[in-house]
Design brief:
The chain is mainly β. Helix content is 7%, strand content 49%. The protein has a five-stranded mixed β-sheet with strand order 4-11-10-6-8, with no helix packed on it. A hairpin with a 7-residue loop joins strand 10 and strand 11.
């Protein structure tokens, strides 16, 4: 690489000097002539204020972008012109981003001859973001393996609404139970009108916006239940108003099953030292299930059982030891009950390093009856 008058002359001179024969002398003179021509052309371009392109170069217009302060909606779109400013054809092999959940792109072509360009359409969705954000778009090509073209995109995301009362989680929902939850929605921007309508994407959740409102805040009543299926339920409450205004409130609830034990397996390290684990039993059926007996692999496992005062729930403390020469299944904790459903419960006990490959998944969350 040569420098002359503050600019760069780049080129590839690849020739071999031949032996001092007549033919070799001609080849040598010809090669030197080519080299001098390249240098003279580069110097001329330099004088003219031009930069001689290298073999692989890619540029973006604009090279970076600062969106300033934006709201968390709607989706922002920005086109970038990606041009091959080198002297050889180039192929774009990958476009990566450091926030794949909040950004996506469309590239209209991936192979560029010298001076050709492609349009990269960037879509930025700030819905789940807030505060200072720096998105990096990295473009890799077959000629720039170790040095991708990086386009930084900066923004400060300001939420349109502040939710007071989140998260909305209805815990330990019982059979036929219905509960309510209040959320205050405080606008962070000037609204064209009030929020007046509320909808849900789940039949287990309902919502209503208070009829008496002001534009400083809105009160929303969320109702959950009854749930006919045990386990975790999730939904979205969507609030709407004038001018297409809308916001969303995520909601969740847990319906207590009639009988539930967890975890579904016990995993300990293969150590001789004593280790402690807990097996939980939760239930809501009427009449409740009673435990009538427990059996464990006596050589390596001991247990204690406790019943929660006032509730038909159990906690079983398990103590393991002497497992340094064991790898894999140790045995089962067998729990007898007084009802046909769930009947006898079997919980496997494994000895395996927790830093290694986990044992085969055998109902990690336990079982629901």
């Amino acid at each position: 690489m040569y420098k002359e008058r503050g600019c760069r002359i780049r080129g590839i001179m690849n020739f071999r000097l031949q032996k001092h024969t007549k033919t070799g002398s001609k080849a040598r003179v010809s090669s030197l002539g080519i080299a001098m021509a390249l240098l003279i052309e580069g110097w001329a371009n330099c004088v003219a204020g031009q930069e001689v392109p290298g073999p692989y170069q890619l540029t973006a217009d604009p090279p970076n972008l600062d969106l300033g302060v934006i709201l968390d909606a709607p989706v922002f779109e920005q086109p970038f012109i990606i041009q091959n400013t080198g002297i050889l054809p180039i192929r774009i092999t990958d476009v990566g981003m450091n926030c794949e959940d909040c950004a996506s792109y469309h590239l209209d072509r991936d192979t560029l001859a010298p001076d050709e360009f492609a349009i990269l359409d960037l879509q930025f969705d700030p819905a789940s973001l807030s505060g200072d954000i720096k998105l990096l778009v990295a473009i890799r090509t077959d000629g720039m393996v170790s040095k991708p073209l990086v386009i930084p995109v900066a923004a400060h995301v300001r939420p349109r609404f502040e939710m007071i009362g989140l998260p909305v989680k209805f815990q330990e929902m019982q059979e036929e139970e219905v509960r309510k939850w209040r959320v205050e929605v405080v606008p962070g921007v000037e609204l064209p009108g009030p929020l007046t309508r509320a909808g849900s994407n789940s039949p287990f959740f309902r919502a209503e916006v208070d009829s008496v409102q002001d534009r400083d805040s809105f009160m929303v009543t969320i109702e959950a239940g009854p749930f006919d299926v045990p386990g975790i339920h999730k939904g979205i409450i969507r609030l709407e108003g004038e001018g297409g205004l809308e916001c969303e409130i995520p909601v969740a609830a847990f319906k207590v099953p009639e009988f539930h034990y967890f975890p579904g397996r016990i995993v300990v390290e293969p150590w001789d030292q004593e280790q402690f684990r807990i097996l939980f039993i939760r239930q809501s059926g009427n009449p409740p299930v009673s435990i009538t007996g427990i059996r464990v692999p006596e050589k390596h496992v001991k247990y204690e059982i406790f019943q929660d005062p006032g509730f038909p729930n159990y906690r079983i403390n398990l103590y393991t030891s002497g497992l340094s020469e064991t790898n894999g299944l140790v045995g089962y904790v067998e729990i007898d009950t007084d009802q046909a459903k769930p009947g006898m419960i079997q919980v496997p006990v494994y000895a395996q390093s927790l830093n290694g490959v986990p044992v085969e998944q055998t109902c990690l969350r336990g079982r629901v009856f």
